[in-house]
Amino acid sequence: MSQDLQIQEWASLQGLNTLAVPVTARYLVEVENPDQLKQALSWACNHEQSILVLGGGSNLVFAGDYPGLVIRMALRGRSWEQVDDHGAVLVLKAGENWHEAVLYAARSGYRGIENLALIPGTAGAAPVQNIGAYGTELGDCLDSVTVLNRQTLKVETLPASACEFGYRDSLFKHRPGLYIILEIRLRLSRNAPLKIGYRDLQDYFGDVNEAELTPLAVAEGVMAVRHRKLPDPAVLPNVGSFFKNPVIGLAQFRELQARFPDVVSYPADSQVKLAAAWLIDQAGWKGFRNSRVGVHNRQALVLINHSGGTGQDVLSLADDVRQSVLEKFGVELEMEPGIVGNA
């Protein structure tokens, strides 16, 4: 075993998850390169330990302590490739802070990810969820993902077409134990149209001529909008949007619209996407708090851990919200974050 690999026992994970849930890992290790990652995987295999790969801890709920080895991805580095007058490819190691990478690209004059500013987490976690906001998804500009295949322990490169991206979905969700993301490559543009059609952004920019905007200006606009609506996890622990916007068929939508004419919806190919925040609000949950956890008073999609709640407290509230929405609207909400740890 390499002396560089330091495995901690009974390590607290409270500071490593944005819900600030007080849980413990049986073992914890931080890896800074692929060789250390392979060593950690080998150690876990030899000691018959399960594995959890952890990025920024911003899209999961710990239902309890984790009984195996938590591998914290700390691979750092960013660089440019294929630079020309029209664009470039931005290469991000898995441990790079996502928001800082967005600002880095925007300040450099590149377009493509500015609408994804202020999304918490790391670059390596971004493809798993196919993160998206304000009319943009990661899959729109992702060129490829470099991964470690856990079965073969070989490094592979997956093109975007192989990642099976969907709405908050990807190959990495479907086959969670197969790949560990090492780096991502984003194809960014110097002159692609900026996306400010989302209503909140239209309100923010008003009558500003789109031709006068820069990607940094759009990123700053997104940040301003998110600051108004969403709590900072460092101040009020949360994992961002807790539920996906449900997609339903046209027939079901027409029935729902007949009962609730003000239902907020968006076209989704041949189906209809509903605003989960509107459903939760109308079910009476916006601003709800019990002694430990609650629903944010400005954004009903966000569940908050305001007073030292456990993962079970959060999940119990989520179940209550889902059941309430199902009973009122006949629509089932799906959670965005993953659930890990022993209940």
Helix and strand pattern? EEHEEEEEHHEEEEHEHHEEHEEHEEHE
| C-alpha Rg (nearest Å) | 21 Å
Number of strands: 19
**Which structural class should the secondary elements be placed in?**
alpha+beta
Low-confidence stretches: none
Q: Shape, please?
A: globular
Beta-strand fraction estimate: 25-35%
Verbal overview:
There is one protein chain. The protein is α+β, with helices and mostly antiparallel strands and 343 residues long. The chain folds into 3 domains: 8-73, Uridine Diphospho-n-acetylenolpyruvylglucosamine Reductase, domain 2, CATH 3.30.43; 78-229, Uridine Diphospho-n-acetylenolpyruvylglucosamine Reductase, domain 3; 238-340, UDP-N-acetylenolpyruvoylglucosamine reductase, C-terminal domain (Uridine Diphospho-n-acetylenolpyruvylglucosamine Reductase, domain 1). It contains 9 helices and 19 strands. The strands form 6 sheets. Strands 6-7-12-10-11 form a 5-stranded antiparallel sheet, with no helix packed on it. Strands 1-2-5-3 form a 4-stranded mixed sheet, covered by helices on one side. Strand 8 (132-133) and strand 9 form a beta hairpin. Helix 2 packs antiparallel against helix 6 (215-229) and helix 5 crosses helix 6. The longest helix is centred in the last third of the chain and has 19 residues, at 311-329. The two termini are 32 Å apart. The mean pLDDT is 96.
